[in-house]
Q: What sequence folds into this?
């Protein structure tokens, strides 16, 4: 089948305004949108910029907005969008565009780093790794799937209007260490997100949960953090 794409183009160094450029691409129904973007770049227009790496839903680098919904270009198939042509591909909203589909994710990663996504507080250095109890580990199964694609933050209405809001993915990473029984800074971690721009900023719109390509129950995890704050800090 032949698909028509409308792709967001903007080079801040040369363009006064963004524009949409149309491309026609032949593709099989089971091919991915990422295959189409690659075909455009390799066969029609080498100036088109987008990120990709693994091609298999692991690295999180090719998150874009496809027909109004944030998704990984390597997970969305041609047959999923064929009925909604032209297929509009745009950069993740709420982030500054560096070029075409490439956005500046620094503010996103700064917020993830802010929650200290590593084990804290145990001064003794064990001889081997810090072993986790398998039952306790199971409680983290859903959150450790996060690949930091930023689809959730880009879709969150609160993050769109309040840049101070920590946002869904950083809260997922906060959850991952708050509920890791090997971590010794649980109370401080809860205090850190016990703010109007932390866990309490979430207004349960569920957009993050709807778009997460790893099917993480993001909103539910944030609500569990809120309940834990009430239980432990009040
Ligand atoms: S549930 Fe919370 S974090 Fe997720 S999109 Fe809604 S407001 Fe944002
Ligand atoms: S929570 Fe889901 S949507 Fe958000 S960054 Fe992680 S994998 Fe991506
Ligand atoms: S290219 Fe790595 S997740 Fe899509």
A:
């Amino acid at each position: 089948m032949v698909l028509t794409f409308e792709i967001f183009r903007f080079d801040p160094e040369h363009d006064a305004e963004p524009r949409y450029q149309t491309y026609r691409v032949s593709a099989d129904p089971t091919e991915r949108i990422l295959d189409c973007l690659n075909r455009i770049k390799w066969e029609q227009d080498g100036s088109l910029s987008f990120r990709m790496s693994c091609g298999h839903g692991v690295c999180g680098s090719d998150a874009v907005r496809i027909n109004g919904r944030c998704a990984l270009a390597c997970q969305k198939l041609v047959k999923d969008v064929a009925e909604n042509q032209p297929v509009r591909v745009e950069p993740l909203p709420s982030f500054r565009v560096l070029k075409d589909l490439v956005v500046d994710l620094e503010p996103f990663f700064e917020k993830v780093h802010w929650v200290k996504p590593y084990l804290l507080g145990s001064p003794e250095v064990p001889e081997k790794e810090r072993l986790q109890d398998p039952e306790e580990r199971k409680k983290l199964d859903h959150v450790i799937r996060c690949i930091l694609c930023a689809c959730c933050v880009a879709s969150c209405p609160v993050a769109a209007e309040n840049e101070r809001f920590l946002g869904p993915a950083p809260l997922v990473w906060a959850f991952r260490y708050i509920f890791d029984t090997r971590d010794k800074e649980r109370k401080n971690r809860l205090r850190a997100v016990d703010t109007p721009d932390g866990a309490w900023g979430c207004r349960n719109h569920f957009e993050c949960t709807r778009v997460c390509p790893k099917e993480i129950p993001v909103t539910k995890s944030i609500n569990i953090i809120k309940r834990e704050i009430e239980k432990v800090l009040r």
The pocket of iron/sulfur cluster (ligand 1) is lined by residues 156, 158, 168, 202-208, 218-219, 222 (CB under 6 Å). The chain has a mean pLDDT of 97.
